[in-house]
């Protein structure tokens, strides 16, 4: 198993480096088994003389734990022993929400990558993380896009990509790998805090599903997510093509008469893309449905107006387009 993980990882990283022309990598770590495994795999990769101009590590301390300082000391000592460079950020005000903390962490990592001109960010997310994230998002209410958000590659901006080379490897396999190499894994006490929803999913829900519902629950969820990912990619390509063909060249507008002929699933995605492309905003579900309903009304001579945040949406049925303009305050 150890050799299999090494071979899979090396093959994946080589493809990534060649395809995206990566010469600098920022690796986000936590000190847990997934991160230590990733660090070890990167070290093995460097021995193969693969040209990577710059490799550095980054750790974001949320200061949730009593032993935060000791964990940082452990990470520093280990990377110092490995002669690796690490950047450490500490968040002064601890956020109680797991989601808010995740957003803060990503903002710090992305900003650091931009500031120091890293071409790629690598995280240690695993197949198990993907399943947990799916279940968590499903409970919170999500879409097919939200369900398939954790993948091997995601483009953050023009010059920066995020990669998750361990996304096809389970936590059990990584645990075995760490034991085989006698790696110094830090046991995170927050993983046993059941006030954190993800921990209940990891330690209670998934074991329950495997024991009482289906022993292959994790495998089946992974297969489902893979199918959803391919479906979503196909739909996304169709939506982008339709959006480009139907947007007005001279103003912020769409030919809604052509769009309304499509399935409501396509309609909603085009409106979402339209809003995001022009205003960098994610429209909420209720406002989105309100726009769709107004757009599909049968009265051709009626003009509808929908207001959302600082945006006014005009649906002019007599001119076959609807325009979106910023309100001038």
Note down, in words, how this protein is organized:
- By secondary structure, the protein is of the alpha/beta class.
- It folds into two domains: 2-191, 3-Layer(aba) Sandwich (Rossmann fold), CATH 3.40.50.620; 239-326, Chorismate Mutase Domain, subunit A, CATH 1.20.59.
- The protein has twelve helices and ten strands.
- The chain has a six-stranded mixed sheet, with helices on both faces. The chain has a four-stranded antiparallel sheet with strand order 7-10-9-8.
- A hairpin with a 2-residue loop joins strand 8 and strand 9 (311-316).
- Helix 2 crosses helix 7, helix 5 (127-140) packs across helix 9 (217-246) and helix 11 (264-279) packs across helix 12.
- The radius of gyration is 23 Å and the shape is globular.
- It starts with a helix and ends with a strand.
- The relative contact order is 0.09.
- Mean pLDDT is 87; it is low at 319-329.
